[in-house]
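USER:
I would value a second opinion on how I read folds in token form. Give me a protein, with the fold worked out from its sequence. Write it directly below this note and I will take it from there.

ASSISTANT:
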Amino acid sequence: VQAILDPAPIGVANTDRFVQNISKLCGAALPDEIARQRGRLIDSMVDVHHYMYGRKVAIFGDPDIVSAIVRFCAEAGMNPTVAMTATKQRDFATDIKAVNSEYGTDTQILEGTDLYEFHEAVKTRGSELILGNSKGKDIADDENVPFVRFGFPVYDRVGVYRYPIMGYNGSIYLLDQMTNAILGHKYDPNKLHQ
């Protein structure tokens, strides 16, 4: 059985690679619905660009997911400032450096570290949004920035596992979560319509 080891299909580029590999393995053209989903993701990115462009974001979690989310945030015009994983993985730093090179970002890479180190890096590098599991909520509260949960464990919200963040549609959901977290934190909810 052939194995293709690619990045997690989060965001445009990584999901493009995933669906192209599926098409190649199956020897079949992609259904039109896949192209429509891709178009909706790009449209969603354009719709929220004015909220997200240049925003500093710090991300922690499992290395394969973190590196994919770092790329997606850069695709969406955000500035990933810190990427942390407690687990060392061969391609983690290489993947983040590739994003830095491609998008002109300067993401600090933390591998084999803990949330204390992550928090210190967030204090130093700055962040307007933090993404990670429930264990990062206190850091977000301490830094007074919005927080989006993903990964494991998520013990302070129900149903998070029912909403995928992979693929084009999952990436739309993740982008909506990030944008709404920023909007909910930055703006008075009674004055959003003004």
The domain at 12-189 is CATH 3.40.50.1980 (Rossmann fold). The helical segments are 12-26, 32-52, 63-75, 92-103, 115-125, 137-143, 167-186. The chain has one domain: 12-189. The two ends are 57 Å apart (CA to CA).
